[in-house]
Amino acid sequence: MKTKVGIDRIHFYIPPQYVDMEELAQARKIDPAKFTIGIGQSQMAVTDYKQDIVTLAINAALPIISKEDRDIIDQVIVATESSFDYSKAASIYLHEALKINRFARSYEIKEACYAGTAALQAAVDYVRLRPKRKVLVVTTDIARYGLASSGEATQGAGAVAMLITADPAILAIEEESIAYTDNQFDFWRPQYDTYPRVDGKFSTDLYNQTFLNLMEEVGERKPDFWDAYQVQLFHLPFTKMGRKAIKNYRQYLSNSTDKISDTDQKLKALDLWEKHYEHAIEYSRNIGNIYTGSLYLGLISLLNYDQSLKEGDKISLFSYGSGAVAECFFGELQDGFREAILFKEIESMFQKRRKLSIEEYEELYLKSIETSDGIIEFDPSVHEGEFYLAKIDNHRRYYKQKISHQNDSKM
Ligand code: HMG
Questions:
Q1: 47, 74, 195, 224: which sits with the fewest CB atoms below 10 Å from its CB?
Q2: What's this model's pTM, rounded to 2 decimal places?
């Protein structure tokens, strides 16, 4: 029998501030129902200018790495599209902060929101060949479109850390997956731009069409798909998006004059997907788009809120990154998957968050780190237990753990 490989531990971290979407809508003179129902967002996580993708990533990974793991992690892979450095990988800071052994590989992967899946697949393939070793994958992003822009309601920030091992406790990932590449300009960020360029309407249409194309291919290549997989998870740029993709696929199946095989069976599967979907969007609804980690945030949300799921249930995951690359891959829930997730810590993180007024949010948004030469020091007066950006010394960033929280691993 082949060794199972997949997600042994998973955790996320979000900044300790958020904005209420009804208040944001009122400030922008928009009907709040557009944000809460039309887009499907209630709250949006916002970073302080001292929190960057590295502080988010370290704080997501720290609680799931044990002392023993540090010696057998061979790779630290960070997926991000909000890097502050065009050369040095964010994973190197992470490697140091987590005290991973010196003989590990550390690098960063980019392809919009899809990068998290590229990192996960690289990790899974590596461990499949070396089942005694482990790989740490961390997705980390700060999604920003600009104040009062049409994308503003779909911002967010956060990191998801996943430890990939053999005999995983949470989700075994299947070897076969189906990827898809299509050169398009739906969302991209030239190196000279602060915010991405986005063709909003086109981006949602392309997402829908990509999902449809992949699903038809999945049906061709995996004859048991429509029967065997209980849940379809989606990349969630905002919580309405996956629902739109299901609706679009349903319309295609219902309206097509071409002969589509197994239409009734497919329509039944869509009904089932819609039921599970509600559980997968709980966290995203209160955080927003975390780009590379959004799909995985959906997975953690599903495992927390969907009490109908049990060991052996099969999940299909749709990863999408603008530009565009997508992939459908598959996993099976493992014995005791719920106990392996730090739900109490997650709950406490939400409880400790502070709501920003719209004025505070706008002020924070426009405040950026000094980019001149010299030394800037920051005090650790942020969220409990955080690693924080302690100093920038002539453009070199240094991170520290609060003294009271050293050795804070939950493992
Ligand atoms: P918009 O033009 O402000 O909004 O842009 P809209 O007019 O399309 O309205 C949005 C929805 O609200 C519509 O629902 C309206 O009907 C509804 P829909 O018809 O689409 O189902 N609505 C209302 N509902 C209730 N009460 C009301 C009301 N008014 C309107 N009063 C858009 C929205 C998402 C396009 C914009 O925010 C945007 O450009 N966001 C960024 C791009 C994005 O998230 N695209 C998603 C697909 S691409 C992707 O997922 C990749 C990405 O994550 C990046 C990466 O890969 O790195 C973004």
A1: 224
A2: 0.96
